[in-house]
Amino acid sequence: MTALKERPPEIPSDITTWEVELQKVGLLRRILNARRWYGADWWFVTVSAVLVLVFIMIALFPSWFAPFQPATLVGPSFLAPGAYPPVPVLVVPNTSLVNSLKDLASPEGQPRPSISVVQGGNTAGALNDAAQQIDNQIKNEPGGLRLRPIIDRYPTVEEALQAVVDGRNNAAVIESTEYTSITAQYPTLREGQSISGGANTAGGFLLGTNDIGQDVLSRLLWGTRVALLIGFSSSVVALVLGVPLGLLAGFIGGTPDRLMSLLMDSMYAFPGLILAIAITAVLGPSVFNVIVAIAVLYIPTYYRIVRGQTLSVKEEVYVEAARSIGARSREILQRYIFPNVIPSVAIIFSVNVADAILTGAGLSFLGLGLPPTIADWGIDLARGQRFIQNAWWLITFPGLTIMLVVLAFTLMGEGLMEIFNPKLRER
Amino acid sequence: MPDDILFSIRDLTVEYLTRAGSVKAVDDVNLNIRRGEILGLVGESGCGKSTLGKALMRLHTGPAQITAGELWFDGRDLMTLSDQEMPEVRGAEIGMVFQDPMTSLNPLQRILEHLTETIHAHEPEVSNSDARARAEELIERLGIRRERIMDYPHQMSGGMRQRVMISLALALKAKLVIADEPTTSLDVIVEAKFLDLLKELQQEFGLTILLITHNIGVVAEISNRVAVMYAAKMVEVGDVNDVFGQPKHPYTQGLLRSVPNIKLDSGELYKMAGAPPDLTHPPSGCRFHPRCPFVMDICGDEVPPLEPIEEGHLTACWLYSSVVKRPEKMHA
Question: Does pLDDT of B269 surpass 60?
């Protein structure tokens, strides 16, 4: 209220106090004070802006966040979220000094260590690979140590462990989950490290794995890149084409305006996804073609907004005043109409990005948009759909991510609209 | 064209081409604007005075078109200029001040940008710092502090904005300033200050001002001459003392009697009979004849010419025409 008293006399009465205060502060404070000044829900904007920033970061640097490459087969298929994959661990007698596979190495000429495993499964293969790797590492080091274990196969876990208890083998390699369940029966044995040294799959898979053993989380994170690429570039392309067309049509008016509006309205009348499907079906699957298809879809949105705004702005007195000081048409468009039209375009842009992401995911869900080698949420959804009955996580997480991204962009757009265009609220 | 005439409007007709038919908002108007004068153009709302003002700069777009006439400005006919040449005249030689100062400046441009843009539009060779120096000097002369030049229009009051509009015309030393109801939206104190400023500038810069207004008092206060329009026609032109002292045309007489006056004895204000005509179907002959208290037979049949009846005092009325015999009861 003090601001009201101190109000300088030259401010006309039709400008309210908060509008005056508004001019004195920067963007950040405007957003923070949005609730008081605009009655806008500032936390909508703040939360969604943070989300959008996070998604943009992920899209720019997915390798910082994702544990694995999206296409590599990193684990067993259909591993539920949070579940640990079976890790082969070393089981040794309590008295043994051996803790890891490397400790079993012996000098050349000495007897090779013997290790018991269970027949079937892939522990023997994994053990061979791990031993080979360690052997290659240590054979050139001084000391002449080698690691070439003799692998004895037993039909059951119990027999394999019994062999260690009896001293027939130096150690056993058993899947950790299996060992944990029967560990009480073998008090003289203890669990060593995993044979791979606990490197890649030690942390498990946070969101599980898919049908061919890819990490769902990594695919989601890498998929952000393609989703945002499609969302942003198609919106930018649509903006770059739609805005000038709308400006020119609105400014020139007459027959060119009518023809252009007829064309744009007929495009606008098409159901969006169907038009995009038609375009991608003709062009073939690739990221570029999806961008083109979605861009074409949104050109009319920008065109209609900009044309309408131009029609009203060009009748403003200041445009006439500009002509009265000798401004030419190009200058009027550039310096008077365009800056007054662009705020509404910025708001449309944010909402449009969300819509484009959704359309892009829809296209690849239908198998039309992207080549299947690309990590994309729509593709993951389509693939996971077949396994919906026994692997719920395959479609749940891509679906949630799409929802979250779209929600973040939409909320940010709507919130910005309330902040920059408070008059819209009053209507 | 005599040398003392800056702008000569000859037989100007401006039509609005609408679906309901064409409307002549300015019909066959002749008017001379002399160098260094303030010419007041008065008339009711909708009589075509603003349309005339815009037509002088060929500012019309859309449905409005100049369908006939010549606009002789400083030795050349503006009607013969192409659309590319016309912007060079606008701003540089003729400036305009609009009715509503709240909307006549671009809300997204600083005052400085308005001024430097005007300067650069016509003198691209001027450096930015020179243009800024000129702009600052100019608004200081108009009574706005130098620091305010970085303000946006919404940070200024109506009076200040109107002064900025004037400064746009002065930035390039325009010879003619068309002020279209510049004080309508200002309160009386600001209005008085603005009119004083206008008069000062006119003397200091040798400006010629066409002051379009419906406020008779403003015209009486600062104009040298006055032109009265009625229903798209010019009805009376002359020295401000002559026209307001001894109005000849019955419309002017009625107009002056209907101006509120504190000294007025009778309690009730004079109301002219009838209403302004619909310009899609204007009355035949003299447009004022359906409302004229002195109507004669000829008035409904023939359009009266704008003729001099005294030195420098013209009127378009059959009462004073040499062709027609005056009736006995002229001044009722």
Answer: yes
User: In one letter, which amino acid is B322?
Assistant: S
Q: How far apart are CA B178 and CA B96, in angstroms?
A: 5
Residue A165, domain extent? 88-194
Q: Among B89, B102, B106, B156, pick the best mutation site for testing chain A contact (most A Cβ within 10 A).
A: B106
Given A194, A225, A240, which residue is the final one in a domain? A194
Start-to-end CA span in chain B (Å): 40
Q: At what angle do helices A42-60 and A393-420 cross, to 10 degrees?
A: 130
A321:B165 CB<8 A: yes
Residues on chain A touching B91 (C-beta within 8 angstroms): 324-327
**Digit-coded pLDDT (tens) for A380-422:** 999 898 898 888 999 999 999 999 999 999 888 877 777 766 5
- Interface check for A346 against chain B (CB to CB < 8 A): the answer is no
Domain count of the fold of chain B: 1
| Out of A12, A320, A324, closest to residue B157 by CB | A12
The CATH number of residue B48's host domain is 3.40.50.300
At B226 the pLDDT is 95
- In this predicted complex, what is the ipTM? 0.80
Catalogue the E-assigned strands of chain B.
Answer: 5-18, 21-34, 38-42, 64-73, 76-77, 94-97, 176-180, 208-213, 225-230, 233-239, 307-310, 313-315
Q: Note the pLDDT of residue A288.
A: 92
Mark which residues 239-298 of A lie under 8 Å from B by CB. Answer: 253
Cβ separation of A320 and B62 shorter than 8 Å? no
Q: Do A317 and B59 touch (CB under 8 A)?
A: no
Nearest CA distance, B151 vs chain A (angstrom): 11
Among A232-241, B101-110, B129-138, the least confident range:
B101-110
Say which residue, B264 or B131, is predicted with more confidence.
Answer: B131
pLDDT in tens, B59-102: 887 788 899 999 999 888 999 998 888 988 888 889 888 888 77
**Residue written as token pair 């379009």:** B212
Q: Is A326 on the interface with B (CB under 8 A)?
A: yes
Between residues B16 and A10, the one the model is more confident about:
B16
Alpha carbon of A323: minimum distance to chain B alpha carbons (Å): 7
Using a CB–CB cutoff of 8 Å, tell me whether B168 touches chain A: yes
| Residue B313 bridge partners (DSSP) | B310
Task: Tell me if B102 and A316 make a contact (CB, 8 A cut-off).
Answer: no
Does A121 lie in the same domain as A49?
no
Q: A308 pLDDT band (50/70/90 cuts)?
A: very high
Q: Side chain identity at A95, as an amino acid letter?
A: T
Q: Identify whether B165 is part of a domain.
A: no
